[in-house]
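Exercise 4. Each item below gives a protein and its sequence. For each, produce the structure-token representation.

Item: Glutamyl-tRNA(Gln) amidotransferase subunit A (Arthrobacter hankyongi).
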Amino acid sequence: MNELITHSAAELAAKLAAKEVSAVEVVQAHLDRIAEVDGEVNAFLHVNTEEALAVATEVDTARAAGGAEAGRLHGLAGVPIAIKDLIVTIGQPTTAGSAMLRGWMSPYDATVIQKIRAAKMPMLGKTNLDEFAMGSSTEHSAYGPTRNPWDLDRIPGGSGGGSAAAVAAYEAPLALGTDTGGSIRQPAAVTGSVGVKPTYGGVSRYGAIAMASSLDQIGPVSRTVLDSALLHEVIGGHDPADSTSLTDPVGALAEAARTGNVAGMRIGVVRELQGEGYDAGVQQRFDESLELLRGAGAEIVEVSCPNFKYALGAYYLIMPSEASSNLAKFDGVRYGLRVLPEDAPLTIERVMGASRAAGFGDEVKRRIILGTYALSAGYYDAYYGSAQKVRTLVQRDFDAAFAQADVLISPTAPTTAFKLGEKLDDPLAMYLNDVATIPANLAGVPGISVPGGLAGGLPVGIQFLAPAREDARLYRAGAALEKLLEDKWGGPLLAQAPVLGGVK
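Answer:
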């Protein structure tokens, strides 16, 4: 195995800038790793070999030329990245993990992809996901499940399990994901990686295939807090193409990650996001993290968010309702899969019905039906309207909690990675995996998951939440805990995997 794939993005950037290694060498090392292990992991749906090497060659040429051309290179130029296959890209298929979009080629780039291209970060390919981001395990992909690099018989989280698994398996140093109810943070937790959901509107959603527009957010996946901060600075910022985009500057996120100091910081422990329903091993790692933070000078306070207990129910009304509306465009008429009914008459309605029946999987159909029902005449106020009122109560709970604490902390997920197939027949049990991550999406606040140790030999995630627009606090707190734990372990959590990256 090539040692280059074990370096963080920040380390690779430094080596590239010092000309200790070429961008082509870095990209090829990761392409070789993908070829070696992805047959088992199934993190990638498409590998972008030719373009990735071409971009790497451009970076090497510019650095070799020196002068102004080299000076214009972004700090992460030449550092490769994987892209969740929900984010549209020119020149690569965008399938959303669905048969409905098998082989579909986008005519435009998402805003975040435009920024990745401008930074000359070679894109290694598109990663697997639950179909249209609907799931918590990456088992609901039309292209087969992704496997957790720590244990190939277990799930890598979802919906962005492909991005998290690629990073954890050393197939990519960085990845982009999307987070609607925890789809970046929960996969990060169960794979021992770092995942960030930025403040809603802090990163443009233009070009991300929408599931629930008021909840979706693109964010970084990495192996270190600093790497996520560096990528966040690349993709963040105002975008006039996104009507929900904030006008705030991105801020000095990498500086906050490098500071990593919690002395004097008030950290609020959310009473409702621990205890009953959380595995004993998860709770133990969480309690140990609190003690480390307290020892580093943080003030640990308990806060109560009583309406969080209703967040899961509200989310699973709001999200399917918005998904039902957003997925109406996939009708077999304009683009995507088209299935013609075998018998006459041939009408648009029958083509739409046949195409959607064949193109959507069970979980997508389940959520469309639920959402359509919640929005139907006579039920809108009782279901969708009531869920939006709960959303307001959750936002008020956050406001009250942040009046007492600078950041909040909880386990990212109540359990470690479960076995593939274990919860496929029990959707409600699957939905419970998002209990700790969903409140942030309902309120639009930022969250980060950092590796918190092992329980039963599997990774546990620790989640920090901050007020809207205060993403820098996440990086400061997350980096502090990361350092405290790595000092305790003697190195990164992934170094404790049975085999490097967990793949034999």
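Check: The domain at 3-262+447-499 is CATH 3.90.1300.10 (Amidase signature (AS) enzymes).
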